[in-house]
Amino acid sequence: MTAAMRTITTSAHLEPDTTARVSVFAPTPEDEGFVSLRVGGEFIDLALIARPDTADALRALARAAEEAASALDRIADTTPDGAV
Fold this sequence. Notes:
Layout: E1 19-25, E2 34-40, E3 45-50, H1 55-76
Antiparallel strand pairs: 1-2, 2-3
């Protein structure tokens, strides 16, 4: 009996030198192709594999990442006593 793992929950801290890389794997006669989005640093490398029907999920991830980045900008603009 075999089982496939399709989800995992983990955490890692992004650092200023975190890298992101996209690799495109073209379709073949046996496969529809996919994209790999890799985010990594010195000790962790996370690869998200996306098939053609998951483009909207990647767009949602990009929107969430932009929202998180904006929140970090607002935090950075806050004075030490918490006032904006």
